[in-house]
Amino acid sequence: EKGGYPDFMLKEICEQPRVVRDTLVGRLAPTGELDIDELGLSFEELNLIDRVYVIACGTSYHAGLIAKNLIEGWARIPCEVEAASEFRYRNPIITPTTLVVAVSQSGETADTLAAIRDARIKGGKVFGITNVVGSPVARESDGVIYTKANKEIAVASTKSFIGQIVSLSLLSLLLAQAKGKLKTGQVKMLFHELGDTAAQIQHILDTQGPAIHEAALACKDAASALFVGRGMGTAISYEGALKLKEVSYLHAEAYAAGEMKHGPIALIDPGFPVIAVATKSPTYDKVVSNLKECEARGATIIALATEGDEDIAKIAGHIISIPPVRDCFSAITASVPLQLLAREVALMRGCNVDQPRNLAKSVTVE
Ligand code: F6R
């Protein structure tokens, strides 16, 4: 059942190139129009959307943080991302032109369902993004995009997270097209680059094992670790920290790198692991200067860097290389080595990577 892999977590991480390809199959018509019929809203209706909330829990919430960058960046629609457990107990502003996007792998998370029900009562349109056909989230939403991850068995989400990011990227492109913010040619180009991430993930899987193993050795005995980045890198850091803590029980926190000097830098002492998303992006130089400050205090820096970046080697003790990719798609590639890092650290610490303590695969009670 594990297909020759030692655990489901690794099997599912290795399936991610396929998930990207399957989630995109048949989505772009030759005319350049995106084909997402299941959304159930016309272009005209999409054009009226003036506010988006992404609601979700855990890893799915992190996919939402990534989507915020895409929805605001491409479609120029204000977007908020909120934990479903918070959203359901306040009084969010929802009108008939509000789109609520509920992201849930299992499609049965109690808080996410409650938030959907609340949003619909208030008159909002609800789209579900789920991995389970016919699940409550799918049934109770106005429209749905299915991620094509197939069944995910390991408790920690990996391949469904990648499927969620790809689906949310499609939704963001569709909104941008409906709003007239991206031209057909741009949508086509971005769609193809989104598809290219399948091969880029494969390349990371094929080449970065030894570097990730070394990085895991460098942080496995730490009491705590910090993940930092900026922009997309911040969202990637949140997910990296969650993955590490849930499977290895090593305490980890994520911070926007620019926030370091407002408090967390006090944590840094010699050997403290700082895992940085330092791939080439509009804020690369800023991230590098934050890392220099950590290095000066003796931190052990593990950097996710763009292939061929030689400057970063002067600061970071460990480098995990990522193929060059447009910033908007960097979460798809950069998240993969962080999943592998979490797994390696967990195995080194004797943890069961498929079944971490205290966690359930779906959280159907509050
Ligand atoms: C972490 C993880 C959880 C889930 C969360 C939401 O690896 O799997 O944080 O992401 O419980 O679950 P779904 O997406 O099923 O609503």
What does this structure look like?
With 366 residues, this protein is an alpha/beta fold. 45% of the residues lie in helices and 16% in strands. It is built from 13 helices and 10 strands. It has helices at residues 8-14, 16-24, 43-48, 58-75, 84-87, 110-121, 136-140, 159-178, 184-207, 209-219, 232-248, 284-296, 330-348; strands at residues 51-56, 79-83, 98-104, 125-130, 143-146, 224-229, 251-256, 273-278, 300-306, 318-322. The strands form 2 sheets. A 5-stranded parallel β-sheet has the order 2-1-3-4-5, with helices on both faces. A 5-stranded parallel β-sheet has the order 7-6-8-9-10, sandwiched between helices. The longest helix has 24 residues, at 184-207. It is globular, with a radius of gyration of 20 Å. The two termini are 32 Å apart. 55% of the residues are buried. The mean pLDDT is 96. The structure holds fructose -6-phosphate.
Short summary:
The chain has helices at 8-14, 16-24, 43-48, 58-75, 84-87, 110-121, 136-140, 159-178, 184-207, 209-219, 232-248, 284-296, 330-348; strands at 51-56, 79-83, 98-104, 125-130, 143-146, 224-229, 251-256, 273-278, 300-306, 318-322. It has 366 residues and is of the alpha/beta class. Strands 2-1-3-4-5 form a five-stranded parallel β-sheet, sandwiched between helices. The chain has a five-stranded parallel β-sheet with strand order 7-6-8-9-10, with helices on both faces.
